[in-house]
UniProtKB/TrEMBL annotation:
Signal peptide: none annotated. GO terms for cellular component: membrane. Pfam families: Fer4_7. Transmembrane segments: none annotated. Residues 34-63, 65-94 form the 4Fe-4S ferredoxin-type domain. One of its GO terms (molecular function) is 4 iron, 4 sulfur cluster binding. This is Hydrogenase, EchF subunit, putative. Keywords: 4Fe-4S, Cell membrane, Iron, Iron-sulfur, Membrane, Metal-binding, NAD, Quinone, Repeat, Translocase, Ubiquinone.
Length: 114
């Protein structure tokens, strides 16, 4: 056991190897994929984002002018943001915060054109 004293003393007086999340947040890495948001003013309800979404996390309801996005189904691949010709979808580098309940985000589009 005396051979462990050096390791024990080193661990007692060194900084912890992990961060105190959520008190200390790490900045996101370059090119990381995170939260997805819609700009309702740019969306033309073309349904391209819902069609290319591999996780089927996006549902458009043109008759009600609604976009329903389920962040728990989303795999944050960014295909919807790359496909949107109107640049209405933005993918931010910050990742989504954990959720305690399953809730979809609904964006209402008031003016769109066919």
């Amino acid at each position: 056991m005396p051979w462990m004293i050096g390791t024990v003393l080193k661990n007692l007086f060194s900084t912890p190897p992990t961060r105190r999340y959520p008190y200390e947040k790490r900045e996101s890495f370059a090119g990381s994929r995170g939260n997805i948001t819609w700009d309702a003013g740019r969306c033309d309800m073309c349904n391209d984002c819902a069609r290319v979404c591999p996780a089927r996390a996006i549902t458009l309801k043109p008759e009600k002018h609604l976009i329903e996005y389920d962040p728990l189904k989303c795999i944050y691949c960014g295909t919807c943001a790359e496909t949107c010709l109107q640049h209405a979808i933005t993918q931010h580098p910050l990742y989504a915060a954990p959720q305690a309940e399953h809730a979809s985000r609904i964006t209402e589009v008031h003016h769109y054109r066919y």
